[in-house]
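The authors assume throughout that readers already know how a fold can be written as discrete tokens. For illustration, here is how one protein appears when written out as sequence plus structure tokens:
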Amino acid sequence: RDINIALVNELAIIFKLLKIDTLDVLEAASTKWNFLPFKPGLVGGHCIGVDPYYLTFKSQTLGYSPEVVLAGRKINDGMAKWVVDQLILEMVRKDISIKSANILILGFSFKENCPDIRNTKVLDIVKILSEYKIDVDIVDPWVDITSVEKEYKLKVSDKVIKGKKYTAVITSVAHNQFLSMSLNEWEDLIEENGILYDLKGLIPRKLDTLRI
């Protein structure tokens, strides 16, 4: 599974350079009977993001370097940085001040409709954005807010602050609550000239959206 996601992540990076929409490619590919429905995104959690290292460690102690497994890990572990790099590039293109930006991240758990925050890669996005001195709000209706603060020293809300608008919104986890949001609700989150950055294919495609 880790390798499959890594392949799709690498394809998404290539498609971005080619100015091709990854969702369009996946939609076309899904018309084939043997299509495997893997999507690009962050790979965290206590299984996929960790267990391959046990295998590679054991392999290396036996004198074999597992190149494919490690390559997949390298790609998936680097996705958070790539995501932020794309966002910063888009902000520069749109002449948006980085230092005065405020960003909303929708989702903090490592997967959809799940409260588990172990090894969540959303944390990597938050850390990288903080290096740019960007203010970040995190909303996740599934996680235990107290646990997040205790484990990661971060504040998470269970719902969006009504009336607050953001420079950019990143959809990082496909919780049902976000999937059910209307077109108007997405528009209400963004400042004029703001950026909707869709990592999970959540945002209605009618809207001008930056995608993974």
Summary: The first helix runs from residue 2 to 18. The chain is about 40% helix and 15% strand. The beta strands are 102-106, 135-139, 166-171, 190-198, 209-211.
